[in-house]
Structure formats: structure tokens, C-alpha cells
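Lab manual, section 2.4: Encoding a predicted structure.

Procedure: take the sequence of the chain (168 residues), apply the prediction step described in section 2.3, and record the output as C-alpha cells. A sample record is shown.
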Amino acid sequence: MSNPALNVLFLCTHNSARSILAEAILNHMGRGRFKAYSAGSSPRENQKPNPLGLQVLQQAGISIEGLHSKSWDEFGTPEAPHMDLVITVCDNAAGEVCPYWPGQPATAHWGYPDPSAGDGTEAEKLEAFRQTLHALKRRMDLLVSLPAAKLERALLQSTAHALSKEPT
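Recorded output:
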């Protein structure tokens, strides 16, 4: 009998760039062992995923189907999927007081610079998104290759923290 997928929630402030990239990458690479979600602490009204982020995902062969910006409040309700791991991917969200997550999931912070910040050319902004995608992918490679024993509830917190060190 196989184990159920590990539910992972990626958080950022607006849920338009880094958390969206992380959700899509882990769902692509997770091979049924992981189910990724993303949300923001304060998405703007009518917030949508950054088009450059969606573009680099598509160029990498990663599905963008179903990706949309949403508030982290959606995941604190009794009807929401139970999270096993909650990871902040931006420093602002890491410093905020998170809602109560049912089941007390493991938590970690994997900080990345905001690829949508700055006033560069369109090509420079696209490259920033590519770099963020590759950095996230390197960390996801490590996560999805972990043996099942490292993903058991008792070890998940220390495993997630160990993965917060930038892969080389």
C-alpha cells in the first residue's frame, strides 16, 4: 500500500512569483509523492500570477494549469487540505505571524530574491525569473529524492530546515 502524498504549502506575500513557481515545480517533479499548493499573506485585489513566471514555467515544460493567486486564509479552514509542510519563500512572509495551520505542520524558510522586483529590461526580468526557477528546482530535486523515512512526520521539521541551506 502506498503512502498518501505529502501536502506542501509555499507562502509569499502576494502569491504571484516565487510561491507560484515553487507550487508548479514541486507538482511537476513530485511524482505523486507530493501535492504542492501556494498562497500569499496579502495578495492584492485581483492578483494574478506574474506573466513572466508563467512564461518561464511553460518554457521549462511545466504545466501552469490551475495556477492562481490566493490568500493563505484559504488553507486555515476546516475544509482545506491538511498541510504536512509549510515553506515561506520570501523574507516578508517569513517574518509575518502565520495563521494557525491545523495539524501543526513542519515549517521552514527557503528565501529567494523577488524576481519581479527591479526596473530592468524585459529580458533582464525574464532572466531573473529563470534564475529563480533554477534555484527552486535545485532544492526541489533534493526534496523529491529524499527517502520516505526522511519525510516521516517526526523527521520532517529537521529535514525541511536542512534543505534551507542553499544547494551547491
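Check your result against the sample. The radius of gyration is 15 Å.
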